[in-house]
Amino acid sequence: MKRILILGGGFAGLWSAVGAARKRDELGLAADDIEITLVNRDAHHAIRVRNYEPDLSPLRVPLDDVLEPIRVRRVEGDVANLDFPNQFVTVTAPNDSVTLPYDRLVFALGSQLARPHLPGLATYGHDVDTFTGAARLETHLKSLALRPSTPASRTVAIIGAGLTGIETAAEMPDRLRGFGLEGGRVILIDHNAHVGSDMGESARPVITEALAALGVQTRLGESVQSVGAESLRLQSGEEIPTCTTIWCAGMRAHPLTAQFPGERDPLGRLPVDSFLRVEGMANVFAAGDVARLMITEGHASVMSCQHARPMGRYAGHNVVCDLVGLPLKPLRIDWYVTVLDLGAWGAVYTEGWDRTVVATGAIAKATKEEINRRRINPPCHDRAAILAAGAAEVQTPPAYRGGT
């Protein structure tokens, strides 16, 4: 028996497993010929990119609903150690530890929020990086309505005006009203001079307009000095009364990338070739947020499900081909879009690396909902549908219905 071991059950890891199972099935091979094992810290595939939304109930998909029909084994636990010379991985659970051998490895443990060592942040800060963090924030927001009404209890401060911070801020006014917190104040803080500094000249005015219409205030060119139970202090000296600080500033590849030999990029990612093989490592592939794939000259893959999903499908396809001596398939993605949710205002849809706006408002919002509620969700229970979705192909860009 040959063994493929996939680490991570996020977008890249899950689709690596599906892609590998599809290729195994195409070749007429059984699970006894090539065993595919996926390791994840819990039993769910998290639709992480939706953690800013008010309804968290649809955001966790049971992994077994996808893996069992296609005969992929699941191991629950945390990856503790990678032994590349001997080709095994150590996985720990609360009451157990297991060593898993492999013939081919797909490293897809994703990314995590980069939290600086700011006074009070670990104690009082919230995030939407994980389902657990988002659920904790939801519980906290509900509790605010039970407190005496003060400026601190009615103010939410969001640190980081990148895509996650913007989406969280744009949704927050309605969330506060939904909990009976009328007159709530939402402040978006960033050290850059603009919100959405990576969104380009075309999109930034749209984002600014939407946030203003929603009543979201900004503090730009500012950095955080400390976080308290009922206040946030900026480096400028301004103290903002708030019981709710949400950190959305910066991402880093999973820290286990440090166990790999060779170079990593400034985000901690591993360089991979077009087949998703880690450079300099014959039996190891990587996909998703831990991997740096050059998409076009001057543009590497981004930490998003837009790239993690095809990277996963191609990695899964290629590890099977590599095991049986078939040619590998290079991943080429010839388009790039960004669809940014702007809460009740709508959304903004951009095309290209310069992020040229092609749709805004309700039209773009319909596309965002199509992505969030259907496009990125894996099929469940239906073996044929699951395997069909694992094809090593790049989907066409999401559609929008003309105009702005």
Q: What would you say this structure looks like, in words?
A:
Helix 1 (11-26) packs parallel to helix 7. The protein starts with a strand and ends in a 15-residue tail after the last helix. The chain has 9 helices and 27 strands. It has 404 residues and is α/β, with parallel strands linked by helices. The strands form 9 sheets. The protein has a 5-stranded parallel beta sheet with strand order 5-2-1-9-21. Strands 11-18-12-13-14 form a 5-stranded parallel beta sheet. The chain folds into 2 domains: 2-112 and 251-335, FAD/NAD(P)-binding domain (3-Layer(bba) Sandwich); 115-247, FAD/NAD(P)-binding domain (3-Layer(bba) Sandwich), CATH 3.50.50. The radius of gyration is 22 Å and the shape is globular. The chain has helices spanning 11-26, 63-67, 121-124, 131-144, 163-178, 200-214, 305-324, 361-375, 383-389; strands at 2-7, 34-40, 44-46, 60-62, 73-76, 78-83, 88-93, 96-101, 104-107, 111-113, 125-126, 155-159, 185-190, 216-220, 224-227, 231-234, 239-241, 244-247, 251-253, 270-271, 284-286, 291-292, 294-296, 299-300, 337-341, 347-351, 356-360. The longest helix is centred in the C-terminal third of the chain and has 20 residues, at 305-324.
